[in-house]
Amino acid sequence: MEKSVLIDKYGRELNYLRLSVTDRCNFRCYYCMPEEGIDFASRKDLMTFDEMLTLCTIFCNLGISKIRITGGEPFVRNGIMPFLNKLSEVDGLKEITVTSNGTLSDKYKAELLRLGIRKINISLDSLSRERFHHITRRDSFDSVYAGVFQLLDAGFDVKLNCVVADNKNIQDIVPFIELTKNYPLSVRFLEEMPFNGSDGSQVLSDWNYKTIYNYISEHYSDINRLISDANSTSVNYKIAGYQGSFGIIPSFSRTFCGTCNRVRLSATGELRTCLYGPPVTNLRDLLRQGASIPQVEQEILAAVAHRERDGYAAEALSNNSVHKSMSVLGG
């Protein structure tokens, strides 16, 4: 019998799952949530690690080969490392990657390497202690910055994610690129997105992907575009002679939707086939209602089959749910 795979109605195959293991975070970044935080999910509403493992196994049986662990901040949840140990043994899973704010990941680096988890994205929006504090509302710059180089020294493939916004961190763009001169870092500049958990009054930055590139091109004359993976969300570049690279992600402009190969599962079991769209089903509820593995598989296959063409079409169905916190959505 031929194995089922995740294919949407436009013929696009999905093989990448972003799994949020918690909505909690020890930062309060302005573009993610209000300073006072959000109404975090109760423990009973969070999926257990056993439920997550069951669902990841189902997804991998349907062709998912890469899982990115996100949050919130994934390392604030107790039990994350035993879960990753079990996850690393799931058949069909070729790669596990992690996105973190860098405050807690360093203490786990030896175990992560043992599990074969070598790719880690660190959210770092400024190289200034003052601006970092203004953006994150936390005084943790020194430990996060030092941790980046500790991860590099340990052999990790490190990407730095920087959300770009006027009056926040424009002056950090060139210093970030200069970091790639002597270090094998990949810095990725992201457009700001409307996911800060507000009432919908968020005013987004005018710095889109074109503005970011034009700004960089004013400072560098020898920018070489790199060949990227067909499903890459970033357009990647390298300054001649520099060790590392930089990329620009049009996360709000959504120019990459046509090749998107990912699906998202929140810490409470909400399945999204697009970051900008509403949840299409809740897999936690299915499991707790006693659904069989084949029934869960069919629910996932049906959800993916009806995926919208792009983020704009998905957003039209959202009824303003796009204003949820990124900590809830899982990125």
- Average pLDDT level: 92
Strand content: 15-25%
> How would you name the CATH homologous superfamily?
Aldolase class I
Q: Which radius of gyration do the C-alpha atoms yield?
A: 19 Å
What's the tally of helices?
11
Gross morphology: globular
Helix content: 25-40%
**CATH class call:** Alpha Beta
**Count of discrete domains:** 1
* Main beta sheet: 12 strands, mixed
CATH structural architecture: Alpha-Beta Barrel
Offer a quick outline of the entry.
This is GTP 3',8-cyclase. The protein is α/β, with parallel strands linked by helices. The protein has helices at 49-61, 80-87, 109-114, 129-136, 141-154, 173-182, 209-217, 283-288, 293-305, 311-315, 326-329; strands spanning 16-20, 66-70, 95-100, 119-123, 157-164, 186-191, 223-225, 235-239, 245-249, 262-265, 270-272, 281-282.
Describe the structure.
The protein has 331 residues and is of the alpha/beta class. The protein has a single domain (16-329), classed as Alpha-Beta Barrel (TIM Barrel), CATH 3.20.20.70. The chain is built from eleven helices and twelve strands. The protein has helices at 49-61, 80-87, 109-114, 129-136, 141-154, 173-182, 209-217, 283-288, 293-305, 311-315, 326-329, and strands spanning 16-20, 66-70, 95-100, 119-123, 157-164, 186-191, 223-225, 235-239, 245-249, 262-265, 270-272, 281-282. A hairpin with a 5-residue loop joins strand 8 (235-239) and strand 9. Helix 1 packs parallel to helix 2. The two termini are 35 Å apart. 42% of the residues are buried. The mean pLDDT is 92.
What attributes does this structure have?
331 residues; alpha/beta; TIM Barrel; twelve-stranded mixed beta sheet; 11 helices; 29% helix; globular
